[in-house]
């Protein structure tokens, strides 16, 4: 009898999204120095989520056939970071500022590079017409090459032990490197760009579901990157394939202030057949 094929998809398990305890240290291998992590965009309860996910990986080690990790990967200069924008006084927006299409039309916020005006007008109009999250200025986060871009230690250690025990290698998928579009979901950017295939639909995660009997899903944050990734996947899956998905609900949490959106996402996914379980119930 064939053993069921099971995969684990971990979305953006990076330091900048975890409420790391003050006493936790992180070693930068290139400098061999210990530095205290100051996460840029900590999600409440995320550190406890990481502990539970690490325990799940340890317990299910022999039953997990593949591990796929998405990594939010930004530049300092990014459409969702303050430096991309300025007002008439040359000031950059504060973190968590919402920038609407009308704000740009009215000249309240404009791109620091004037030649991008047409792009940002089309971008914000597209987000609003599609009913997606409005453009929000996040604290500068997950900049490639910084400590905040790295996978948190409990999850990284569990993945490494899984690799040692199974003689397999986990797969990493980078997203968000193009500075001109936000990239919450692991399948495509919020506003795919014609001149960058990395922002366009990538079938990898859909194929992951098709090739496996079960796919467990975890990561941060439930309200944004987890929700967007799963929503992008289910759009391309049949009702039977959707039943293969299980969100480990005790290993993912919403961004503060977006709890209602996370609840709405979970309700919607539950209704269409996605399994919602805690890691300890498996």
Automatic annotation (TrEMBL):
The keyword Hydrolase applies. The keyword Hydrolase applies. Keywords: Hydrolase. SUPFAM superfamilies: Isochorismatase-like hydrolases. Belongs to the isochorismatase family. This is Nicotinamidase.
